[in-house]
Structure formats: C-alpha cells, structure tokens
Amino acid sequence: MAPGKIAQSASAARNDKPGPRSVSIGLIGLGTVGAGTVKVLLEHQRELERRLGCKLKLKTLCSRSIAQRDLSWLGQPVEITPDWKQVVRDPEIDIVIELVGKLPTARAIAQATLAAGKHLVTANKQLVAEHGMDLVERSRAAEVNLGIEACVAGGTPILHAIREGLAGEHFTAVYGILNGTTNYILTEMERRGCDYREALVEAQQKGYAEPDPTFDVEGYDARYKIAILAMICFGQPVAVERVSAEGITRIESVDFAYAHRLDHTIRLIAGARRRAEGSVEIFVRPLMIPRSAQLAAVTGALNGVLLVGNKGGNTMVTGRGAGGEPTGVAVLSDVVQIARAIVSGGSTTTPLGYTHWRPARIAASDENEVAAYLRLVVRDRPGILARVCAILARHHINIDSVLQEPAHSKEKLPFVMTLEPTREKYLARAVKEIARLPFMAQPPLLMPFSQLP
Predict the structure, then answer these.
(1) Known catalytic residue at 59
(2) Contact 280, 361 (CB under 8 A)
(3) Domains annotated on the chain, with CATH
(4) How confident is the model at residue 5 (pLDDT cuts 50, 70, 90)?
(5) φ, ψ for residue 240 (rounded to 5)?
(6) What is the structure's pLDDT at 18?
(7) Which of 65, 159, 400, 407 is deepest in the core (most CB within 10 A)?
C-alpha cells in the first residue's frame, strides 16, 4: 500500500502556527500501547510543547493493519504506512517509537533505527532485558538516545527515578509488584474471598488479563522487569533465564484467611538484592509479607517498587503499571527527554544507568534461610500430623505453629504449619517427601515469609 494521509481538521489547521524547530516522530505499532500513546500525545501536545519550547510533530504512523483502521479521530495530518522500514528511512523523522509486540520484529526495528542514526524509544521489556546492553552500545556508537521508561511498571516513572533522581544512591535491594494482572487477582481474592478462577475471569472481562494469562500469572512478565531493574540499580546485567519464576495459580482464598491470622498478606514479589560476597539474589515468587509492609498497600492493578538504599533508606514509587494511556505517558516522557537533547544539542543519555558493566553472579536461592508457610490439604484420618512432623524432623525443620480453619470437608481438609527459619534446600526436600504421603489430596503449597519494610 502506498503511503496516505488523514485529512487535517479545520480546527487543527487554524492552530497550525509557525513556531520554533519541530521534532518529528514516527510511531510503529498501533496496539493498545501505540493507540494510547498517540491519544496522550494529541491530548497533551500543547503542554508538551510548552515544556520543550519546540513543536512535536507526529509525522508517520505504521501498522500492518493500518488500511483497516479508522483514524478519523486523529484530527491532524499524519502519514500512514504498513512498512516499518519506511519510517526508519525517512530523513525527516528524528525519533522512532517502537511499540510492536514480537521480539524478532522489535529487535530488527531497534537495530535499524539506531543504524540509521535516529533516536529510539521502546516499550518492549523482553527486548531490553535480553538485548539492552547491545542496544546501549549501538546507540552510543550512533550518538543517539535510547528511551526505555515504559518497559517497567508502565506509567510509574521508576527508571527515571533510579537513573536520575537517585543516581547518588547505592542500592542494596529492589522489590516490586510489577504485574497488574496478578496483583488484581490476588487483591480481589483477598478482598472478596473469591477463588483464583473467579478473580481471573473478572480480570479478563476488565481488560487486565489476556485471554491466555500464562505470561502474567506464571511470573514471566515480572521476570523481564526485575532483570531490567537489577541492571539499572546494580549495573549488573542478568541473564533472564537465570531468574527463577513462580506464579500464583496455586494460591487459594483460604491462604488469605490463614495469612490474616498471621497478620500477613500475599503478593507476587519480584526482587533483587546484593549479597555480601558480591553475588545477586533475584527471583519472582508469591511471598507472605507483613500487612504493615509498604508493598502490602499496593492493591488492584497498581504497580509498586520499593528501592532500598544504604544512605537514603527506602524509596517507594507506586502507580498504574499497565494500560495504553498510562504506558503512553511513560513513552512520551522519553520522547520529551530526547527532544530536549535534540533542541539543546545535548549529549546522549545512559538509559540503563551505567557506562561500565559487571555481569551478575546469580546466588543459589536454595541456600537462603527462610521462615515458611506450609499449607497441606489432606483426606482426614488419624496420625496425619505425626507423619508430617516426623518428615520435618528428619530434615531438621522446626515447627513454629499449626493452624486449622474450621468448616472444611474431611475429604479435602486444609491446615497450615508455619516453619522456623531453615535453608530452602531442606524445605524443598521435605515438601517433596510430604507430597508422596497417601493422604495428600493435593500437592503442598510452600511460601516463604519475607520481612519487607
């Protein structure tokens, strides 16, 4: 299809007054985030230009299905094309915004954009987590800027905060609720006492969860994001496949009842922390956290990031982590920063926060000592507690308490043990042995307690 133009509205034409230098944008990908970014740009255009002192011109939109789209809502002239290469090659475009979903295409667009000497903004977390250092080196060689703010926590400005506002801090740890889908499901289960399936269906109906929610509920989405946060906080690139990820699909409403008896709640936490010997512990998993913890107050589809520094203490940032327009705000924050550099002739940014890197040595998590929550669901009969206790004793695990909620079926009876701090490898061995007992109605659920601030 040949490039076309959307007709300019009369009101837009009247307001098209001559002004200072214009910065031109080409946007590739018109999915949820792409459309949201365009809407925010058009709605906030005058305010953005007041911040910049120059015009921001949306020159070209690219999507494979652009011919089938109704773009009459744009209200200003915009070139359209199904060919992303045309956007990258256009000599008038200063900044390319890459918002496609698939990694191979996103990487090809990113590399071609930088090779063409154009500034790049991307929201692709997998691209940055797996190829971020390569993109940084390419952007340096081309003397252009790379914007990645929208890759973590959507509209929550966490990367700018770490890279600029807290650049003088030495971070010892970062913890986050980085996936709005799982946080919505967990907090609805907690608030209403509904089961996982019911909360998931509701999340899908509200647009918080995909028809296939696996990427979110199994922790894979948060895994890319915590890898990026570890790079920016510690200056240590992390191989994503080395980050252990555990999802929320086995958590039941009864777990919240027990958690509340223990003055705790359950959240899917992505965390990275430095160890004394120089290694990095990094994980995504459901944790029992105190109800007084700052991250416990992050509910619904919100995201929250807790930064732990050795001088400034704890810094908490919360906000909307998903959705087209909140993520579009993050995309445009990069556009504004890059446009300022273009206008002023300033130097390129350091999007991952460091200019020199030291690959992370990932700590073995099974050596951690943790207190733990162990939920067992059994077919009730005499001697159950004695047999479970014998296995725990054999693995040198002490029991702190035993809890049982009333009014459950004897054929599917849940009860909980809280366990004193023990190495995770011993807990894993004991749980594997307990799972083989003949009276178990379903596999045991083990969750560590975490004393987050």
Answers:
(1) no
(2) yes
(3) 4-147+324-344 (3.40.50.720), 159-320 (3.30.360.10), 368-448 (3.30.70.260)
(4) very low
(5) -55, -35
(6) 42
(7) 159
Q: Which residue, 256, 203, 238, 245, is CA-closest to 222? A: 245
β-sheet with 55-62: strand ranges across: 4-5, 79-81, 55-62, 22-28, 95-98, 119-122, 146-147
| Cβ-contact 432, 389 below 8 angstroms | no
How many whole angstroms separate alpha carbon 255 and alpha carbon 414?
9
Q: In the beta sheet, which residues pair with residue 282?
A: 272
90-104, 180-194, 256-270, 308-322: lowest mean pLDDT where? 308-322
Task: For residue 386, give Cα distances in angstroms to 389, 392, 420.
Answer: 5, 10, 18
- Cβ-in-10-Å burial (0-12, 13-18, 19+) of 54 comes to middle
Whole-prediction pTM? 0.90
Phi, psi of 446 (to 5 degrees): -120, 125
Given 39, 225, 412, 425, the catalytic residue:
225
Distance CA 64, CA 231 (A): 33
Mean of all residue pLDDT scores within the chain: 90
Give me 447's structure tokens. Answer: 């969750």
Closest to 271 in 3D by CA, of 203, 189, 350, 171: 171
Q: Inform me whether the pLDDT recorded for 16 exceeds 70.
A: no
Q: What is the average per-residue pLDDT within 262-290?
A: 95
- Burial of residue 359 (number of CB atoms within 10 Å: 0-12, 13-18, 19+): exposed
